[in-house]
Write a structure and sequence with these properties.
8 helices; alpha+beta
């Protein structure tokens, strides 16, 4: 039935949300469901960025014919009008070979005023234009004359006809209006349809961590669009080397080292832009832990925002001086730093565990990470079932 659905899609040249399986292959599962435990902190209910109250995610996958393999993913910080009720935010640039839009105003003012949208490199301006249309049409924004749209991107040209710029305004609107809380689709979905990671199929991945009550009980949620090269490691196990698929390996087939990675971090902790940037920096530790090294052509960005109402920035602020700005004390940030490291690392691994084989432009196929072989390697290196070891405090 799944193969028939795909055949119909090819025949009519459809462009739609496809979260179903396209190719018959081994069962895909999230890493934690298979005994791959990253770090020591507990997850939120969904183990997703949507565990942070108010955050919603929407995907639109654009798959058409033999060559179109792309999409758009929307992350909404809260349910209200984000322009009128901005959230504190920051960006950390790991490697600047990217086309992220909206970065300078975030760095200057310390907040974001639109949802965050992820797509492919050449579609970023079109997606920004559609997001502006969406924002100025919202009730309350009738007199708005300046909008800083926040767009992240990675290059999916290895599988997608990227020059065709196939993400259109209707796809952007669909991802925004259908965004929801709860479980988040991962792998070959939305902005992750055509991405590649560490020699295998990449995609969208997400994870979360919950701090103990003694550390504030805050939640950290992360969503990634993974599309970069390196030598895959999971819990210290040399998976890429064991599978004989890694950067600089001698083989006939070219290895894709460039590409980029977008990391979106949400938290309900009251943090200033300064401390959100410090939080975003720590996500980059995870990038190295999984075997990424930020190649020359990899644009790697971390965007962090706080949903805490005390950190909101109203558009029509009547106060000349901010008298009650909330920010966690520097000495209390270490647990949050640890949480973002763990959640980012698991989100990247989830993006690969949930991805599937994909054939795209020029009939090129990128294979997904082989789950069963990977689990064998992890068992060999004692990198499985770490959750059975002593647990972190929940107090």
């Amino acid at each position: 039935m799944k193969i028939l659905t795909y055949a119909i899609c090819l025949a009519i040249g459809c462009s739609t949300i496809l979260e179903s399986k396209i190719f018959a292959q081994e069962k895909r599962s999230r890493a934690r469901e298979l005994g791959v435990t990253i770090g020591i902190l507990p997850t939120g209910k969904w183990n997703a960025i949507t565990d942070v109250p108010g955050v919603k995610v929407g995907h639109t996958s654009v798959i058409s014919g033999q060559n179109v393999r792309t999409g758009v993913t929307a992350i909404l910080p809260h349910e209200g009008n984000i322009f009128q009720d901005k959230v504190a935010a920051a960006v950390y640039v790991g490697n600047g070979f990217g086309k992220m839009m909206g970065i300078s105003q975030i760095q200057e003012l310390g907040n974001i005023e639109t949802p965050i949208l992820l797509t492919n490199t050449l579609n970023a301006p079109k997606v920004a234009d559609a997001l502006i249309d969406y924002m100025i049409k919202l009730p309350g924004n009738e007199n708005v004359r300046s909008v800083n749209s926040v767009i992240g991107e990675t290059n999916d040209g290895g599988l997608n006809d990227i020059r065709g710029r196939h993400v259109h305004a209707e796809h952007v609107l669909q991802s925004l209006t259908q965004a929801k809380s709860g479980p988040v689709a991962e792998g070959n979905v939305g902005a992750g349809v055509g991405t590649e990671t560490l020699g295998f199929k990449g995609g969208i991945g997400t994870a979360s961590r919950k701090l103990p009550a003694s550390k504030g009980g805050y939640t950290i949620g992360v969503l990634v669009q993974s599309n970069f090269g390196g030598v895959l490691q999971i819990n210290g196990a040399p998976v890429g080397r064991e599978l004989q698929n890694f950067y600089m390996m001698e083989k006939k087939e070219p290895y894709k080292a460039d590409g980029s990675c977008m990391i979106v971090i949400a938290t309900d902790a009251p943090l200033s832009s300064r401390n959100l940037e410090r939080l975003a920096k720590r996500s980059y530790i995870s990038f190295g832990n999984v075997g990424g090294f930020s190649s020359n052509g990899s644009g790697d960005y971390s965007i962090a925002f706080s949903t805490n109402p005390a950190c909101r920035v109203p558009y029509n602020n009547k106060n000349q001086i901010e008298l009650d700005v909330k920010d966690i004390h520097n000495d209390e940030l270490s647990a949050l730093f640890m949480a973002v490291w763990e959640a980012t690392e698991e989100a990247i691994i989830n993006s690969m565990f949930m991805a599937e084989d994909m054939t795209g432009i020029s009939n090129r196929t990128v294979k997904a990470l082989p789950i069963n072989k990977t689990l064998e390697i992890l068992k060999k290196y004692n990198a499985l079932n770490h959750d059975k070891l002593p647990k972190a405090t929940t107090k």
